[in-house]
Design a protein that fits this description.
Pdz3 Domain, elongated, alpha+beta, 12 strands, 4-stranded antiparallel sheet, 10 helices
Amino acid sequence: MFTIILFLFILSVLIIVHEFGHFIMAKKAGVRVEEFSLGFGPKLFKKKSGDTEYSVAAIPLGGFVKMAGDNAQEYSGKSDEYLSKKPGERFNIIFFGPFLNYVLGFLCFWLILFVGYPTLTTKVGGLIEGFGAQKAGIQVGDVITEVDGKKVQYFEDLQKEIHAKKEATQVDLTVVRGGRELKLPVNIREKNIDDPIGRKKSVGLIGITPYDEVVIVKHGFFDSVILGANKTWDLTVMTYKGLWMMLTGQLSVRESVTGPLGIFDITSKAARLGMIAVVHLMAVLSVSLALFNLLPFPVLDGGHLLFLGLEKIRGRGLNLKAEKIITQIGVSLIITLALFVTYNDIMRLFGEKITKFFK
């Protein structure tokens, strides 16, 4: 039950932030907002305030802001209608939804870095048979403090340094054992591994695993801002690289995308790891939602922005028939993608049980 509540909370925060972006910019541009809804389907709660009806619906898998005159069929030419505004003002209204999601992701990363997050130390927890560390005499419990004279404090730093030594034949490690400092030359083995978006990359390995020793790492306010911005940017680049690889067939769509069921499963795992893991999940989901919504695809915010750009160039918008056809195609493709992703999640999470059931 707790996981369900947490999942709905995270989803609701992402939706409210996104729709608030549209809402606040519509208000700023003088557009009358008729409805602000969290969820779809039958309304569980609604309240009218000014021109806007605020509601919570039964299916919490989305939300929307309904603006006056936001389509050609309803547009009557009044000054407070969406289509009466200049393309630049409408661009801001559409763009600010994903933009606020992107900002939320950055703020979550900043918060994690500022309040502190758990990370593994460089204490050796295990040795892999046949690799350089074992042959060089590294022992379980050793603490590695330097790689070729460069200080390392956390396991991720150590891993980064070793991975970068893929072309070296040997690396000099400084190790603390029982209060004594030792210098040990360790052979490097080059190996191909999968990176975070599924590409094969060559790295250097010495064959150690971390000890289960965790410390809390904190950064200053301004350092956290810079590091949070870097993490947000790295995630942006990685996401678009992954999308490009899926489009070009270099990456399996089946193994790379997930939907509500998959996110629910990830949420349950994050909940077991603690609040920092939950905030990290929210950061990743919020940035991912922003980036996905900005894709130049019909129905998505990016599709609307593309058409606004074309309208600016042409001096006029699409005719009603063309808008209808493009919207129908977009909706059909989104539904198809949603069904594929849901089926994929079901088979990934429950495939073995389903197969056993029908045997």
